[in-house]
Design brief:
heterodimer, A: 7-stranded mixed beta sheet, 19 strands, globular, B: alpha+beta, 8 strands
């Protein structure tokens, strides 16, 4: 409906807008998706992906993944790599929820073994993992201890009995980005976040029990390598981020960078939400260090939640977590900026890559993925809506075209307001229950906003990513239990 | 008192946008606080005046003042788990900047008593604006959820 006439499909499921589309574009924009998805992108996607192309130092293309939709500054699904010496860092390319991400945990249990205790399990998880507006976590920290969490991330969890060494091995960045500097974070941010470790949050954040049915295994070899080996195997998938802490860090720096950008560095931007600073400037480096603090807090948040999951499963089934086969498959972040090594025009070099609502998807043989996944490519966890299911994907060699980035979820198509008009919470919960999905929520009203129909077709999203060659499908998971924040 | 804010559809698909108004700048700020709190709780009247917090913010212009003021309400939601309403606001000019003083009233979040909706992450700058109208003052705000 809003597709610009200049848009050309340059290869299957890869579409390009040339630099002539908008004044000031340094590079073309590349949008990923089937014709159906591309035609359904809201007008904001085209506007924003081309705005990003005007930022100083951008390399190759401004990308939007197939689950893209309108965001602030960058679209959700936006990916952009910058020359660290000539380019910028922008909070709008990372998102307010810094290191919002997904974690996938497998169990050795089958759906038939879980079904009799499903309600008890979901209820217990709901009680033990706080969610919803302003909820506080079960890990009680003093402000100074929280500074250590900022520096160490999941390593803090390991030192304090909330993690197994293998959990860190199977987390992006091993659960800790080096170079986090708590002195670059405001006291306000600390006050907002130090009591929120071990909370899910609300909105589209959730924890789900899901099943890997045999007919939904796309690649048995890769599934096996990721530990999905038993028909009807139950897994736990959850989605959450850095909570109020990350939101405050992003808000603080949006203004700090906005104040410096034009006056000090003469950078003119199209949209205030694209507030940015040269990466090598003091403001740019301060934000990068503060962002890493929020990245690490978020890894710690998802890690202590895993600790709780182990406790609850152990409690409900009367067996140890090891005996139940509870092991982390992987943890991915989908809101970050990172320095990575990539080939640009055939030459390996360092780039500063922003991924906002997009997941890193390193291919086989690449460094920085766990030894065990070196031959398979990185596991990529894609969260769907609470009704429709989620995916496990793997990174592929041809992912180099997007600096090894792919989708992150299904992406909204309907406003929260419209969804509330169409869907009614109690009816939705009843319908889902009839379909075998048991839901607990801290917001009856909020749940209607998260109905499956408010989201894009996730099957179409992951299929498009595969056709385009940025990731491949490994398995699809069907929900049986859900906790909504 | 009639509601002096409304939610706008189709401005922010994944989030919430509102328009708030008042005869004076002060009334506008009171309305905007209710619009914000109403995103998190179904009925703002369910928030009782049990505790109060003094809000003081300064800024170079009215828009930034509203931004910082709304961020303060979000701050208390996370830092102290408080839902707040702001019955009275005073805005004064101090040299080249504006100063706001207000007493926010509210109480601790109670999931059983407050019909909780969605958590607000941040006030965004998207379409953010305050303007004078023939009837008084109006603001447009988009919140990240």
């Amino acid at each position: 409906m809003t597709v610009p006439s200049e848009l050309v499909e340059v290869s299957p499921a890869v579409w390009e807008l040339p630099v002539s589309f908008k004044q000031g574009m340094h590079v073309p924009a590349r949008l990923y998706g089937t014709r159906k998805l591309v035609e359904a992108f809201d007008a904001g996607v085209y506007e924003q992906v081309t705005n990003v192309a005007t930022l100083p130092g951008i390399l190759k293309y401004s990308f939007c993944m197939p689950d893209g939709h309108w965001g602030y500054g960058f679209p959700i699904g936006g990916v952009a790599a910058f020359d660290p010496d000539e380019g910028v860092i922008s909070p709008g390319g990372i998102g307010f929820d810094i290191n919002c991400g997904m974690r996938l945990v497998r169990t050795g249990l089958t759906v038939d073994e879980v079904r009799p205790d499903l309600e008890k399990l979901v209820n217990r998880l709901f009680e033990r993992i706080p969610s919803g507006v302003g909820s506080t976590g079960f890990v009680k920290l003093k402000e100074d201890e929280f500074l250590t969490v900022m520096e160490k991330g999941s390593r803090w969890c390991l030192e304090n009995g909330y993690a197994l060494p293998e959990d860190l091995e199977y987390t992006e960045e091993k659960g800790c980005m080096e170079g986090a500097d708590p002195t670059k974070v405001s006291h306000k941010a600390v006050q907002r976040g130090y009591n929120q470790i071990g909370t899910l949050g609300s909105g589209n954040h959730y924890l789900e029990l899901q099943v890997a049915r045999q007919e939904n295994i796309y690649d048995p070899g890769l599934a096996g390598a990721f530990g999905i080996t038993v028909p009807g195997q139950v897994v736990v998938m959850y989605h959450c981020g850095s909570r109020g802490f990350g939101h405050q860090v992003a808000t603080d720096y949006l203004h700090i960078l906005l104040d410096a950008m034009e006056k000090k560095y003469g950078i003119h931007i199209i949209d205030k939400e694209l507030s940015c600073a040269p990466f090598r400037s003091p403001e740019g480096q301060d934000y990068f260090s503060a962002m890493k603090c929020a990245v690490n807090m978020s890894f710690a948040n998802r890690q202590v939640i895993l600790h709780r999951i182990r406790e609850v499963f152990s409690d409900v089934f009367g067996r140890s977590p090891e005996d139940l086969g509870i092991r982390q498959v992987y943890d991915v972040t989908h809101n970050t900026a990172k320095l990575e090594e990539h080939a640009v025009d055939g030459v390996m070099r360092q780039v500063l890559i922003h991924r906002k609502g997009a997941t890193r998807a390193f291919g086989p043989g690449m460094r920085d993925i766990p030894e065990e996944y070196r031959d398979t490519g990185q596991p990529v966890i894609i969260g769907g809506s609470m009704e429709t299911g989620s995916y496990l994907l793997a990174g592929v060699e041809s992912g180099s075209q997007t600096f090894y980035s792919t989708a992150h979820g299904s992406g909204r198509t309907m406003s929260r307001h419209s969804a509330k008009k169409i869907y009614h919470a109690r009816q939705l919960i009843k319908d889902m229950r009839e379909r075998g999905i048991y839901v607990r929520t801290s917001s009856m009203k909020g749940i209607a906003e998260e109905a499956g129909g408010a989201y894009k077709d996730i099957d179409e999203v992951v299929a498009a990513a595969e056709v385009a060659g940025v990731s491949r499908r490994v398995a699809r998971f069907i929900p049986i239990g859900n906790i909504k924040g | 008192m009639p509601m002096s804010y409304r939610y706008l559809e189709d401005i922010a698909i994944a989030d919430v946008a509102f328009e708030a108004w008042g005869k004076t700048r002060e009334e506008l700020f009171t309305s905007a606080a209710d619009a914000l709190t109403n995103v998190m709780v179904e009925d703002v009247k369910s928030v009782r005046s049990v505790e109060h917090r003094d809000i003081h913010v300064e800024a170079g212009n009215l828009e930034r003042l509203l931004f910082e003021y709304l961020q303060t309400i979000i701050f208390y939601k996370d830092a102290e788990q408080l839902l707040l309403r702001v019955p009275r606001v005073s805005i004064t000019q101090e040299d080249s900047s504006l100063a706001l003083d207000a007493q926010a009233m509210g109480e601790k979040i109670s999931p059983n008593r407050h019909g909780l909706l969605a958590d607000v992450k941040a006030v965004t700058l998207h379409r953010f604006g305050v303007k004078e109208t023939p009837e008084g003052w109006k603001a447009t705000v988009v919140l990240d959820i």
